[in-house]
Amino acid sequence: MTDALSRLLSTRDWLMADGATGTNLFNMGLSSGEPPELWNIDQPDNIRALYRNAVEAGSDIFLTNSFGGNASRLKLHGAEGRVHELNRVAAALGREIADASGRTVVVAGSVGPTGEIFEPMGSLTHARAVEMFHEQAEGLKAGGADVLWVETISAAEEFRAAAEAARLADMPWCGTMSFDTAGRTMMGITSASLVDLVEKLPNPPLAFGANCGVGASDLLRTVLGFSAQGTERPIIAKGNAGIPKYHDGHIHYDGTPALMADYAVLARDAGAKIIGGCCGTMPEHLKAMREALETRPRGPRPSLEAVSQAMGGFSSATDGTGDDAGAPVRKRRRG
């Protein structure tokens, strides 16, 4: 029997993922610096509400509250011995909400970066990274996650380690990187090099793409970069709701539901098959995105100029692939 995500991908032109985890939990009272994974045990009703809100807004896929659920990140809070428990409960709460939805909803076990640097620049070894990701994956699997969702990765070494951990856990997986430095990840990966990396993996992901980063314009440019490589693997677009602004003691994202609706349609037309939001994306954004994807006809692949006109200029003149010199740089952002 094939996994739930593969079944949906085989029968649908596009799937909608969820929005922000952190932004939504901060609105529920999560304190800055507090590990959200502890809420799986301490505030389970809030986590159920997080998941339920995404499902009710139209998401076909939602991510579990386990982004920082690896031993390296949890060690910062003295919780490195609770990896299996916290991930298992994150997925189990998700399974409960998905199974009660009355339709097929994919529970995606969120796996974020370790926060460590690989050898020789740092001390993290491939074996240790695989061990940490595998421990987390086993917890998510025990809780009933349908798929591992590796996200916000910046290093090729970490992507490979997560892929190996998924194989050891015998779980399907998806993987996204965050392109936030002139179209590259923090470790210099471009859209073109990620496509190359994905296709050379012994167990490639079901789908791959980009999440977070700078803003919707830059993320759409990265999606166009994936498509330009001719990949036939489903592409994921999970962009932030506008640009973060700091005021009144908190971070606010300036993207309106209307802006995110435009982004969702552009992402689909740019070649993405799984479309969601990242930081700042709330249920009202997701509802607008779902309605736009359902009601607006598919259009031609957008040009960089069309993206910048709709979403605002880019944060840099190039995305590192050499194909977009002279792209309009952001001066002001529509929001």
UniProtKB/TrEMBL annotation:
NCBIfam families: PRK07534.1. Zn(2+) binds at C212, C278, C279. This is Betaine--homocysteine S-methyltransferase. The lineage of its organism: Bacteria, Pseudomonadati, Pseudomonadota, Alphaproteobacteria, Rhodobacterales. The gene is bmt. Residues 3-293 form the Hcy-binding domain. Belongs to the vitamin-B12 dependent methionine synthase family. GO terms for biological process: homocysteine metabolic process; methylation; tetrahydrofolate metabolic process. Its EC number is 2.1.1.5. The keyword Transferase applies. Transmembrane segments: none annotated. InterPro entries: HCY_dom (IPR003726), HCY_dom_sf (IPR036589), Met_Synthase/Corrinoid (IPR050554). It comes from Cereibacter changlensis. It holds the Pfam family S-methyl_trans. Residues 294-335 are annotated as: Disordered.
